[in-house]
Amino acid sequence: MMPDDSYDIIVVGAGPAGSTAAMYAAQRGMSVLLLDKKKDIGTPLQCGGFLPHYETLHELVPNAELPFTLEEIPSNCIHATTSYQRFIAPDGYSKGFHVTADAIDRRRFDKHLARQAAKAGAHLLVGTNVTEVRGTELIMDGVFGEFVVTGKIIIGADGPNSVVAKANNMLRGADPMGTGTAFEYEISGADTDREAVEMYFGKEYVPGGYAWIISQGEDTANIGVGIREAMFGQGMCARDYLDKFMHEHPLASKRLEDASILSVVAGLVPVGGAPKITATNDTIIAGDAAGHLIATNGGGISTAMVGGKLAGETAADHLEGRCSLIEYDRRWREQMGMEIRTSVYARKLMDKLMLSDKLMSAAIRMISPEHMKAIQCGQLPAPVRKSLLKLNIGLD
Fold it and tell me: Is residue 204 domain-shared with residue 249, that is, in the same domain?
């Protein structure tokens, strides 16, 4: 469909953050254009879908007002439900904690959120790239033609390499360890634990990160690696590490050797924290574009949606004369900024330990299941922080 020449709010990117922003803004009566470069929302995937249940999300970001779409997830968007998260150390020792979560079908879930935005009144435009940003004027090109559309406010929810963020100098730091690569296979014929999410560590298979196995029910699963390019071995890429994990890991390979690959998923994961600025007088960024994820696990669906909700609400408040648009930056940092900052600090401590399989195994043995769960939620209890610092001093 042809877009109008102008809108109150233009949202770039129809992932969890963008669709949530568009929905909340449209519900307030704003004219909203939600556009995405993908011809088919949710396809191709760039990230997997592990989403803790609503009660656990309150533990993850206790100060955040969660979107209602995180509580009411359609059953057809859920592959399987797990009840346990298990860490496997480089030496094979395992430990975990109870947590109820869903393996989400991101293709269906992203479409579901986009439909909610359209249902609220947002104009949805797929297969359309933003080729240039001139203030609040966007030059677009795609399957429906070339357009120039103006908004009063632009919301950039267009991922780690956000064109909106770049045009407004709202960039993340240049730390090479601040961006991870997630590379994943959807497989069939796997022998997996349907009740547990498994996370594997070890510099030989996943330098600077971890590998995962997440059941999708029956004999299907997602297996993947989340690693940093700065720690790759010479001539290695993310796919090489995933293949090595799948076929050579002493524990995992026996369960995966007969599996067939159904699809490949790849994407960047911004684990370096948020930019210093996420709002100007006419533009705000949310989701991966704003570093809205928990760096210790790379999970960002729920935090992206919290950021999207606040983006849509603040944009509407601003247009109604209730606040400055820059208020958005304070709002999201108040609701989840501490968890994001703490997770980055914890990730940096763990990065050093990952240089040594011996120390990484020692850390997993040392940390209690309760504290493991806290770290996964972006928290770093004082006893754990002291112990990790001691191990890092030993490494030095």
Answer: yes
